[in-house]
Amino acid sequence: MEYKVRFANPAKQYADHREEFIKAFDDTLSRGAIVNKEELWKFEEDFAKFVGVKYGIGVNSGTSALDVALQAAGIGQGDEVITVAHTFIASISSIYLAGATPVLVDVGQDFNMDTRLLEKAITPKTKAIMPVHLNGRLCDMEVIMDIAKRKGLIVIEDAAQSLGASMKMADGAAQSAGSFGVAGCFSLYWAKALGGFGGSGMITTNDPAIAEKARLMRYNGENREDRHFYYHAHNFLMDNLQAALLQVKFKYFPQWLQRRKEIAELYHQGLGGVAQVQVPHFGDPRFSDIYTNYVIRAERRDELAKFLQEQGVETMISWGTPTYKEPVFVQGGMPRLVSAGGDVHPPAGGLPETEKICREVLSFPMYPELTLEQVQYVIEQVKGFYAQ
Ligand SMILES: Cc1ncc(COP(=O)(O)O)c(C=O)c1O
């Protein structure tokens, strides 16, 4: 099918900066700089600076970032980690893979952790909170950090979707995703706001001990200076070439973020008056969202998605099934699920907002290379669908 508006368009971004990518590729490989070299170290340093932390540790995916960060932060058997059900499976799987137990709370209108449920979810075994900053918007970190401090819990942020998102804290200063907790975990998967050519990720931290342990754990547990092995670990290292190519993109990242915000504003304005659609505009001036995904809530969502497809607009549903209804949970055991009304137990019950979101969400094309005409076309098609 020939789309008028693709959901993503990595070829266009490549074409726009082709000469620079080829130069970075050639410079790196001509020097034989293949593994753990200057390009990686420089990208880690620049990334950490951008987030506002001391250390960046490059890995090969956001999933690896979560796996390494949890283990480097000391999460293990017997610990409970509170996160959300409305997230990519990797957030939850990383908790199991560390040997710990996830506790899943419902989300709020902004698709993020409903912080009113946090205290209800805490038990004597709780060791950490994992807020997931979904779609390019921070969770309310003011509340989460306050609860964590009072209860003696650590915070590990799943910032996979939110590089560059920030919120103004009580002192008026803006603080970025990945700089609040003991560690931040980013995905640099190709479709993210900053994405490599394939998979990639980054861990951020201000804690030198976590940085050191994560650096060893991402590379077979080996200390590259004394050449001894300190942990049983995977090889999750970010490729040096990937870092060199990401560095090319990173230069443009601030202007790409600006463009995303402009496109979001166009969608907001165009769709804000459509009664059957809820746009992701949450009206809290403390938050600066980066719109990694532009996610609406729509009446007759599946019919709308089908109509848009017929009109040549590619959309995506993330996600149509609550995580806890995936076979891995249904067959392998259900985690504790905490809702506003108390604990719920599928299949008799589910997390109300999570379930509703799964029925209503639709992600629209969102990338800096979209033209004004394309955004306008999507808006007109949505209006046309509901006018029928
Ligand atoms: C919230 C969240 N966490 C973790 C990940 C895992 O990142 P990756 O795909 O780079 O492994 C993703 C990826 O989409 C994500 O959206």
Q: Could you walk me through the main structural features you see in this protein, from its secondary elements to its overall organization?
A:
This protein is α/β, with parallel strands linked by helices. It has two domains: 10-248, Type I PLP-dependent aspartate aminotransferase-like (Major domain) (Aspartate Aminotransferase, domain 2), CATH 3.40.640; 253-387, Alpha-Beta Complex (Aspartate Aminotransferase, domain 1). It is 39% helix and 16% strand. The chain is built from 13 helices and 17 strands. The protein has helices at 10-16, 18-30, 38-51, 62-72, 89-97, 118-121, 141-151, 208-217, 240-271, 301-310, 327-332, 352-360, 372-387, and strands at 55-59, 80-84, 101-105, 126-129, 154-158, 166-168, 174-176, 183-187, 201-205, 222-223, 228-229, 277-278, 287-288, 294-298, 336-339, 342-344, 361-364. The strands form four sheets. A nine-stranded mixed beta sheet has the order 1-9-8-5-4-2-3-15-16, sandwiched between helices. A three-stranded antiparallel beta sheet has the order 7-6-13, with no helix packed on it. β10 and β11 (228-229) form a beta hairpin. The radius of gyration is 21 Å and the shape is globular. The two termini are 24 Å apart. The model has no long low-confidence stretch (mean pLDDT 97). The structure holds pyridoxal-5'-phosphate.
